[in-house]
């Protein structure tokens, strides 16, 4: 018989697992990993609202995507074009970034799978006599290791020709040159830290759902158990 067990710790772990998976996915897909050096503003690039020149624009570069401004675009107010610069995996600018994409993709796939499974832990707490919380926590720890490897390798690709075109000739491996780090990189780091927190917290979720109070309510015949 299925017992729906909801505790404060198990619910918090589920929510964190979902947030971490989405945060890493959004960061991976974003082009805001590197913020390039400011492009010089032409006197012809006028701001229609103020009549003066537009503010200097800083293009952004991601692992496989980029955002750049299209000059003299009259058909639309939006003059920033974002999209992948690489049409296939082999066109990613650096071998290090290709490795980063692989490690991050594997880590994110694991996190998404755990986030999906975590929703059902309210009803199913074990499978083949193994705690789902412990299994998911182990998988989150493995995903965190893949994410760390990806984040360590990513700065090694700053010396590729694509990064140099955005960051200037002083850019090299682990040296930003004229670039700065974008929000996507910091989001990926924050998500990695939270991944390990989730992995540790999964043990607390397992303890909460197998506590004496829960067992007492199961013995009383309750199918819906909520301990907050």
Automatic annotation (TrEMBL):
Compartments, record wording: Membrane
GO biological process, one term: single fertilization
GO CC terms of this entry: membrane
InterPro entries (alphabetical): LHFPL
Taxonomy, superkingdom: Eukaryota
This protein's record includes keyword Transmembrane helix: yes
Transmembrane is among the record's keywords: yes
The protein's name: LHPL2 protein
Naturally occurring in which organism (per UniProt): Penelope pileata
